[in-house]
Design brief:
Strand order of the largest sheet: 1-4-5-9-8-7-6
Radius of gyration: 44 Å
Number of helices: 12
Bound molecules: phenylalanine
Largest sheet: 7 strands, mixed
Helix content: 25-40%
Number of strands: 9
């Protein structure tokens, strides 16, 4: 500490009065600005380098004998002033820095609870409509063999019907027989085959899952998307059962006011096949931009299980039991259907851009909380 010691030029009363008044002022300004009481205490009362000690030593040394007493009294008063300031500082609430303290007036940290993704929510809704009708859930792998994805579903190798499902194949499969080659499943229909091979009729299953196609992404297409497949096989299953089931399901999903209609279509694994349309939920069938002024929205594919599919299933089942006849088309019939989850969720919520589902953007997702 390199403190300057104030000079005392004369020891008469007015000079002492003035000198000590200056010191008292110094103490006062320091107590009002000094943040750390201990620094202040050491500066003034420190035993070796304290200001009080240094000043009193300097002034008493050259003081005439008669000035010693008044000097002593004034130094004592000054010391009392300093000590009183220290007592006051100790009693005052500590001045804490913002860093060290906790500001209890700040809003708390809110941890938002998780919610199901809107796609999963719609998928679950579809599945539970069919659970209510007595269907159970079946699942299958996303990496599938050519046999389950195509061949058993009556898409022969090199058949042009395969071109409708632009397929992503796994590399280095050429050495394998065509039926064993691996690919990303293009639809959930292979689970029909897997389930029928594993289980004799009656069978009622729904199959939610992810599917992959070599499609360029645009507002309504994504190379990875989701489907829910359905399969019902039993004695005396007719096209009316298919119509009644899907009409019920569409009303359960979109409201009891929607109408359905069935248009002839083609799938290799169903015969006859149909595309199902629902009356436009945006304009109640009047015609609007969403339904391209037609009043109808195309929603899913369906049809009666083609006997060729039962034949493939039977061939596989006979590898385990040569007498198996569970899927004899003379005894059982069935229907199947498949729908795109993204498409249904987009219609339910009026979403026009499929990419929102995969963006992870909280501003989009929070709307479903
Ligand atoms: N698997 C077909 C598709 O992805 C949909 C479908 C399923 C059609 C079941 C008929 C029966 O396009």
């Amino acid at each position: 500490m390199n403190e300057t010691i104030p000079q005392l030029l004369s020891y008469d009363d007015p000079s002492l009065e003035a000198a000590f008044a200056t010191l008292a002022d110094e103490v006062r300004t320091e107590t009002s600005s000094q943040r750390d009481a201990e620094v202040f205490r050491l500066r003034w009362l420190g035993r070796k380098q304290g200001r009080l000690k240094l000043i009193s030593e300097a002034w008493l040394k050259s003081a005439p004998a008669e000035a010693r007493k008044p000097l002593g009294i004034r130094f004592n008063q000054l010391k009392q002033q300093i000590e009183a300031a220290l007592v006051a500082a100790a009693a005052a609430p500590p001045v804490t820095s913002a860093k060290a303290g906790i500001d209890i007036t700040l809003p708390g940290m809110v941890r938002a609870p998780g919610i199901p993704h809107p796609l999963l929510k719609t998928m679950q809704e579809i599945v539970s409509v069919f659970h209510d009708l007595g269907y159970s859930t079946a699942l299958g792998p996303q990496v599938e063999t050519d046999f389950y994805n195509f061949e058993a579903l009556n898409f022969p190798p090199n058949h042009p019907a395969r071109d409708t499902q632009d397929t992503l194949v796994l590399a280095n499969q050429q050495a394998k027989p065509s039926r064993d080659r691996l690919l990303m499943r293009t639809h959930t229909s292979p689970v029909q085959i897997r389930s029928m091979i594993a289980q004799a009729p009656p069978i009622r299953i729904v199959v939610p899952g992810k599917v992959h196609r070599n499609d360029a992404a645009d507002a309504t297409h994504s190379p990875v998307f989701h489907q829910v497949e359905g399969l019902c096989v039993d004695t005396n299953i007719t096209f009316s059962d298919l119509k009644g089931t899907l009409d019920y399901a569409m009303k359960a999903l979109f409201g009891s006011g929607v109408k359905t209609r069935f248009f002839p279509s083609f799938f290799p694994f169903t015969e006859p096949s149909a595309d199902v349309q629902i009356s436009c939920i945006f304009c109640a069938g009047m015609g609007c931009r969403k339904c391209k002024q037609s009043g109808w929205i195309e929603l899913l594919g369906c049809g009666m299980v083609d006997p060729a599919v039962f034949a493939s299933v039977t061939e596989e089942r006979r590898k385990l039991d040569p007498a198996d006849d569970a899927y004899n088309p003379a005894k059982v019939t069935g229907f199947a259907f498949g729908m795109g989850v993204e498409r249904i969720a987009m219609i339910q919520h009026g979403i026009s851009e499929i990419g929102h589902f995969y963006s992870g953007d909280m501003r989009f997702l929070e709307q479903f909380a």
